[in-house]
Design goal:
By secondary structure, the protein is α+β, with helices and mostly antiparallel strands. It contains 5 helices and 4 strands, in the order βαββααβαα.
């Protein structure tokens, strides 16, 4: 496909939305993953809808942390993510993530839109097809299915 005929999604189109929760033991936030995340955003592969940080102290008390509180370790500047909040994460989500992380750790919760699919879906739509469903498969379900396949 030539660059001139390639579809560029506009801001009104919405791709499938997923989330990740990543634990950082010792609350040591490192730069390489966030640099790669920023690269995916710059390439238009994904759009960040929400990025929240949760910390848990050594006593087990968890709280939402401002992105500016966590920068500095490993020379990382998390300022690019300040204000990335859509309101999609609610208190129940925060409690669930907080329960999963170890005391003394921090977690990043990233809600992102998969923008790469929009051009593909548009190509099919132009030929009369329509998207009738989308969704994710949890890592646990995927591992269980793979394990079941291997044991049979």
């Amino acid at each position: 496909m030539s660059a001139s005929s390639e579809h560029r999604p506009d801001e009104d189109e919405l791709g499938p939305v997923d989330f990740l929760a990543i634990e950082f033991p010792g609350a040591r936030i490192t730069a390489p993953g966030f640099e790669h995340l920023l690269s995916l955003v710059s390439q238009g592969t994904i759009r960040i809808l929400d990025l929240e940080f949760i910390t848990k102290d050594s006593a087990g008390s968890a709280r939402m942390a401002d992105v500016r509180e966590l920068g500095g370790s490993d020379g990382i500047d998390l300022g690019a993510w300040a204000g990335a909040s859509s309101g999609l994460l609610d208190d129940a989500d925060v409690r669930e993530i907080a329960a999963a992380i170890q005391p003394g750790a921090a977690a990043a919760v990233i809600v992102y839109e998969n923008r790469w699919i929009l051009g593909l879906a548009d190509a099919w739509r132009r030929d009369g097809a329509r998207l009738i469903a989308d969704g994710g498969i949890s890592a646990g379900d995927l591992m269980a299915a793979l394990d079941a396949t291997e044991s049979s």
